[in-house]
Design a protein that fits this description.
Two copies of one chain form a homodimer. With 502 residues, chain A is an alpha/beta fold. Chain A has helices at residues 2-8, 36-44, 58-67, 71-74, 103-109, 184-202, 233-254, 295-298, 323-332, 349-354, 389-393, 439-457, 481-484; strands at 12-18, 46-52, 113-118, 137-140, 158-161, 164-168, 206-211, 261-267, 299-305, 314-316, 320-321, 362-366, 369-375, 378-381, 383-384, 413-414, 420-423, 468-469, 496-497. Chain A has two domains: 12-359, Alkaline Phosphatase, subunit A; 366-458, Arylsulfatase, C-terminal domain. Chain A has 13 helices and 19 strands. In chain A, strands 1, 2, 3, 4, 5, 6, 7, 8, 9, 10 and 11 form an eleven-stranded mixed beta sheet that branches. In chain A, a hairpin with a 2-residue loop joins strand 13 (369-375) and strand 14. Chain A is globular and about 70 Å long. The relative contact order of chain A is 0.19. The model of chain A is unreliable at 1-8 (pLDDT under 50).
Chain lengths: 502, 502
């Protein structure tokens, strides 16, 4: 009934895809409780407590969300070294392959208008442009807002409106690294409100992908929010995002289209503890953070909101994944997922609308390696690694203040013959591996081994996109640079293997 | 207005005083979200996010709640060694001094009927009996439910109804240590419901102190709840307590007295991580647990509930303490706190009813030492210690999986001249001490030093009650034992210094 209603009125989609930790929301126990809008979104919708990203790093998890496929399939990984996190810095040569079918490409065929606001991160060379992959509009940048650069050795990151750049970070879109002030979230908010108003006026169904990065280092907030949080600058950024999301939801309600708009909030990876406490958030009581395949790196805050369809204040223990947003959105739009390839996302509607629990595993990948798998409440680590001793001794710590002997290892440790098994209900912090000799271990591992074997035997990895780096491909002369007088001269092409340290 | 209304109708009080960690409630971010009744209590009342116990161990914090005074003042500490946690095991000679004025003693003068259900823990010798200290009724035990004992070297702990014992744990009140089954919480629930019904019938104001210990090791739950939690036996116990509290609140509502009954839920210390994962709970993202003066040991879940007076769904950042329940209850009863002694508790009504924030410090004591102090969002550690290397090497770990260099120390470390300072908003996990050289450190410590100096200069410690132990004082022959044929012969008196290892 709800499903049909959704279909007949062409449900629109909003996806808020942020970098926040599980524990950054008041609804998930952040002790300062500074996210009234997200908490209200949860109280009006459904809170997911067991929702995951497909990778503990931004580019691969964004590729996974938009393709419904694991990064190992869609190419967003590296084979330069074993089990290494890789992404799309400016010098990356690869990006989203044309052969991948993205959610907006499919929705477009069903009459949707698609907009991405914020960080694309699926490649910045011309062939990877989001408007070549199904989006109709874009406001944001292809890469992270790192900088400022000197425009000689390294160019500043461009900001695009649709096909062309309209300026660069630190030049036309300032981020004051000293004060943390930047009004970018306000611009991104306005972009969202305007787009929604236009879609409502034209009665077009839409897909809005709001993928902004104020909580990604370097963290920023606009003047109005600076200094307002108990949590410092990171908290200021969270407050501004929270406020913006509240305004977007209210806008949907004001326009009378909230009952036709399925909205989902989640995160691309766990909070970056390496940036804590000033620029890093909280993964609650979970182990470690971004870059790792512990719960702190991959379990994400998640809220589904769809007034009139999702009963208010529900909580779900459905094991979910960002890839499910692909399949769920297609289902709501009355479309079939592609049948010519393996899709890892599942349709969450039975969980969201009927409270069903669908049995499915969660795979935790780091680069080309399946590090762990969750089945029910059990999680088996086939490999453990936080980061190398070499990095750790330089002060790079993905698990600050946490040290679980034999688990948060700085040597890469293989457990493929005898995985470390945890019960995430009794032990969400992954501190107490089950005894190998226990009946519980044996029974559970038998079941998990079958699932893993099936997964690995049928796995056909895509061509790795994140292997080659070249300074010549940086954002020297993005389209539109001529009009702005912002074209820079690229250096000579020297393709090299990218170095991924962890 | 509310205040007057409260007074004129003789507000009754219910205090739920459990051993649960900050992170054990769904409302505080426990990922299994299995406390629907406590979460509802919070959504109908006020959630305190910055509420503390007076000591990271049960006896002293119970003494503090009932006297409104720090354990260092009311005698619930030891001087046998520096900064040691002490409590009231069976062989303790001391207990609550007659000179202390307990909340029920004061309320009694205003016509209240007072009942304690559960663990008294303020001394088990005749002069310390709760009915000699203001309570009118008691159902429960004087000590923890450890056992079973052989009744030769050590007697089993008695269970009292009012003046006399009605049986012993493991004999007449069974706890099956293998299965974890015990129906004690159901008995304690029934006691509460009956008491409330009688008070309502007689139109007497009452003070009900529900201080049960199902989540204290050895953890237990009744058959109906066993195996129902994702969290194992500890979670089963939490679910049963949650269910019981829901039933008590509904009972108040059904009897039409909820608007005349001020109810507070909190905990006597942080969850015991040493018992995790099977018998230990969660302190969320806070550092360490029970026995320590880190946030995990002393920040407690707390909810105030008073329909018609406290607006629904409020959150407070008021720094609160269990000692405030003494002062707040007196205030609601229209009574003055004693003026002949130092009272550490404050009246929380302005915070609860008018949303005010009252500036006050929180002192973190371990035995005879002030280990730390919180002022605003800052916490200064004057001493750090988790437990000794000797104990740690035996596997006793109050901070499993947590290790903050220089903070979770196994040697007792003095920082009195240069305290370790943390900002609990940016860093609730106490992982990142502020730089001593920073302007922030200097400014904050100047303020804190003044507060600490004033506190220490005016501190007059009470006579320590927890120094002497003697096997002869154990529960060999509690009053009423003759009727049951359960009197045991005490050994010869041999008073000795108690040994407190941490």
């Amino acid at each position: 009934c709800h499903l049909l209603k959704g279909k007949s009125t062409s449900t629109s989609f909003g996806v808020f895809f942020l970098q926040m930790g599980w524990g950054d929301l008041g609804a998930f126990g952040e002790p300062s409780k500074e996210t009234p809008n997200l908490d209200q979104m949860a109280s009006e919708g459904m809170l997911f407590l067991d929702f995951y990203t497909a990778n503990p790093l931004c580019s691969p998890s964004r590729a996974a969300l938009l393709t419904g496929r694991l990064p190992i399939r869609n190419g967003f990984y590296t084979t330069n070294a074993h089990a290494r996190n890789a992404y799309t810095p400016q010098n990356i040569v690869g990006g989203i392959p044309d052969s991948e079918l993205l959610l907006p490409e499919l929705l477009k065929k069903a009459g949707y208008t698609n907009k991405i606001i914020g960080k694309w991160h699926l490649g910045h060379r011309p062939q990877f442009h989001p408007l070549k992959h199904g989006f109709d509009e874009w406001f944001g940048s292809p890469n992270c807002h790192f900088g400022p650069y000197d425009n000689k050795a390294v160019p500043n990151i461009p900001v695009y409106r649709d096909w062309e750049m309209v300026g660069r970070y630190y030049e036309d879109f300032n981020i004051d690294l000293k004060t943390g002030e930047a009004n970018l979230t306000q611009i991104y908010l306005q972009e969202a409100l305007d787009f929604i108003s236009r879609q409502q006026a034209s009665q077009q169904p839409f897909f809005l992908y709001w993928a902004i990065d104020a909580t990604h280092a370097p963290v920023y907030a606009s003047k109005h929010f600076l200094g307002t949080s108990q949590r410092g600058l990171y908290g200021d950024a969270v407050r501004e995002i929270d406020d913006s999301i509240g305004k977007i939801l209210k806008h949907l309600q004001k326009l009378g289209i909230s009952e036709n708009t399925f909205v989902f909030f989640t995160s691309d990876n766990g909070a970056a503890l390496i940036s804590a406490p000033k620029q890093g958030g909280s993964n609650g009581r979970f182990l470690c953070g971004k870059q790792t395949t512990f719960e702190g790196g991959m379990r994400e805050p998640a809220i589904a909101w769809w007034p009139g369809h999702i009963p208010a204040g529900k909580v779900s223990h459905q094991l979910g994944n960002v890839m499910d947003l692909f399949t769920t959105s297609l289902s709501l739009a009355g479309l079939q997922p592609p049948s010519d390839r393996q899709i890892d996302g599942i349709d969450l509607l039975p969980a969201i609308l009927q409270g069903q629990l669908i049995d499915r595993p969660i795979f935790y990948y780091r680069g080309n390696e399946m590090m762990a798998v969750r089945v029910g409440l059990y999680k088996a680590h086939y490999w453990t690694w936080s980061n190398s001793w070499e990095e750790y001794n330089k002060g790079i710590d993905f698990c600050p203040g946490q040290n679980v002997s034999g688990v948060t290892t700085h040597t890469k440790e293989e457990h493929t013959t005898l995985p470390l098994l945890f019960h995430l209900g009794r032990d969400p912090g992954e501190k107490y591996p089950l005894s190998f000799a226990s009946a519980e271990y044996q029974g559970v591992m038998e079941r998990i081994s079958n699932i893993v074997q099936k997964h690995q035997v049928t796995m056909v990895p895509g061509e790795p996109q994140l292997n080659v780096c070249d300074k010549a491909v940086m954002n020297w002369s993005p389209p539109g640079c001529e009009k702005l007088g912002k074209c820079l001269k690229p250096p000579k092409s020297e393709p090299k293997k990218c170095i991924w340290p962890h």
